Amino acid sequence: MNKLKLWFTQTMMISFAILTGIIIEGLVYSIFGRDDLASFSLSWLQLLSIVLTGALCSVPTVLFLTDTDIPRKKYIVRIAFHCLGLYLIVSLFGWIFRWFTNLGGFIMVTVIFFLVYVFVWTVSIWLYKRDDKKINMALDDIRDEE
Questions:
Q1: CA distances for 83 relative to 89, 90, 115, angstroms
Q2: Which of 10, 45, 68, 79 would disulfide-bridge 58, Cβ 3.0–4.6 Å?
Q3: Nearest alpha carbon to residue 114 among 93, 86, 73, 75
Q4: Which residue has the higher pLDDT, 48 or 66?
Q5: Do 86 and 117 contact (CB within 8 A), yes or no?
């Protein structure tokens, strides 16, 4: 159940971060006066592709990064391969679902990917520390009652 919760949480965070990245990209283009985005809208297929990307990118996290009882160097290598694997997934989905049509679009997707990657790690660490603090407080309350 814990891995399912992790997968679901990661899927939600990744999908939200991708959507936020797309919104920021639209705002940047709007500020710099790109007229071709005046009729910008997301189709159901693009929204579905965002959720599918989030779900697929969550699978390697659940499979490869839940074991923290390994040496630090090996864990860092796993994180590097994790980042590369997710980048390949996002690039492939971007090409399949036409998130970009030229090199400039691909660079924008790459920038958004790394921003999303850092965002998800930051939020995951924050959630972990928050849950850890709640557990410790609950244990302290139990100890106080005894």
A1: 10, 10, 12
A2: 10
A3: 86
A4: 48
A5: yes
Take residue 56 and report the two structure tokens written for it: 């697929």
Alpha-carbon gap, residue 112 to 18, rounded angstroms: 7
> Looking up tokens 């920021």, which residue turns up?
24
CA distance 119 to 125: 10
Establish how many alpha carbons lie within 13 A of residue 82's alpha carbon, considering only the half-sphere containing its beta carbon.
20
Closest to 14 measured CA to CA, from 42, 63, 65, 49:
49
User: What is the rounded CA–CA span in Å between residue 108 and residue 39?
Assistant: 19
Report field, pTM of the whole predicted structure over 0.90: no
Residue 39 above 60 pLDDT?
no
pLDDT score of 108 more than 80: yes
Place of tokens 């998130």: 99
